[in-house]
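Bug #77: duplicate submission created two jobs. Keeping one. Sequence:
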Amino acid sequence: MSKDDDSFDVMEAFSSAPVPEELTMQDQRKKRKAEKAKAKAQDKLEKNRENREKKKKKKDKMKKRKRGEDVSDDSDAEDEEGSSKEEGAANDEEGGDSKDKPAKKAKTEKPVKESKKAPGVWIGNLSFSTTEADLKAYFSKCGEITRIKCPPGRNARQNNQGFAFIDFATEEAVAAAVAKSESDLNGRALLIKDSKNYEKTGRPKREPVEGEAVADGGKAGDRIAKKQKNPPSPTVFVGNLSFNTTREAIQQQFEPCGRIRKVRLATFQDTGKCKGFAYIDFFDVDSATKALRAPDKHTLDNRKIRLEYASEEATKKATPWVYRQERKDAEAATEEPQASPAQEERPAITTNEKAKEERIAKKLERELKRKDGPSREGRSNATSGAILANVQRQKVTAQPFQGTKITFD
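Kept job's structure:
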C-alpha cells in the first residue's frame, strides 16, 4: 500500500495474522469428514443402482421363461462369479481364514412329496344345533371315523357354522357317507360331497328310494304348488307373455310336460298379436301339474312368465260342447213353471172387506197418477233451495227519509 493512498483493506491487513493450530486442525477434520460422507454416499448410490439393474434383469428373465423363451444362464454365471468375488474379498480382508474353512455344499432341491389327503367328506346345510357327537353317531354306521372337524359357531347359541368335515379310514366309508346326501339330520336335509370334489355343481340329485316318489321341481315346485288359489285343473293359465309370443312357441315350450289338447292365445282384433296371456288345455291334470312345478318352463322369450291353475269357468271352456250343454240344462231348469201348491179353502169375504180393498186400490192408483202424471201449470217440481237461489234480488238504493225528526232543546 502506497503512502499517498489512504484506503484500508481488511483482508490484506490480516492475511498475515497468525492462526491458532486448534482451528486449523478442526477445519481439516471437518473437511476429511465431509469427504468421507460424500464418498460413502456415492458408494451407496452405486450399489443401489447395481441392485436395481440386477433385479430388472432377473424380472426380464422370469418373464421370458414364462413366455417359454430359451434363456441363457450367462447372467446366472455372472451373478455367481460376482458373489464369489465378494466372498473372496471378504475372506482376504479377514486374513485368509477361508482356506481353513470347508467349502459349502451346493444346495440340492428336495423332491416335492405328494400330499396324501385322508379320505373324507364335506357336510353342508347343517343345523346350528348339531354337535360333533351327533355327527359321530349319525355317520358311525358308514365306517371308521378318524377325524371330525366342526368349526364352532359365531355365538353361544350356535354349535357350528353350518358345515363340517369328517375323515374316514377307507374309501368305501366315504361312498357310504356320500350316499346319505339329502337325508335329514335335526330337521335339515344334508348336502354331502367328497372332500376332494371342488366342483360347484350345486345340490346333487338324490336317487329315489323304492316306494318313494320325488316331486318334480323339488322345493321350488312345492313353493309354487302352495301358492295356487284354484284347485288342480287340466287347464293352466299363462300370464306376463310377450306381445310377440305365438301359439307355436307355447306349444313347443310345454309339449314335454304332456299331451296338449289346445292352446288358447288371447289376441288383439286389429293386429292379431298376443294380449299377454293364454290358456293351455292338457288332456290330464298330471301334465298340467308337471308344467306348473317345472322351474325351467317359467321363462319364455326372455321373460319370466306366470303359471297357475285356471279357474273353474276357464276349465269348462276347454271343452265347449260340455260347457254349452250345461248352460242349456241350466236355462231349461229356470224356464220350467213351478207347480203351485193346492189352494187352501178361504172363508167367504164380507162386504166391508170388499169395500176396504177397493179404497186401498183407488188410493194406490191416485198416488201412481200423481207421480207419473204431468205437472200442473204454474207448479214447479224444483226444490225450495233451488227456488231461493233463482229468486231475483232487489237492487240496494238510497231511500229518502220519511219519518219525523226529533230534536232536543
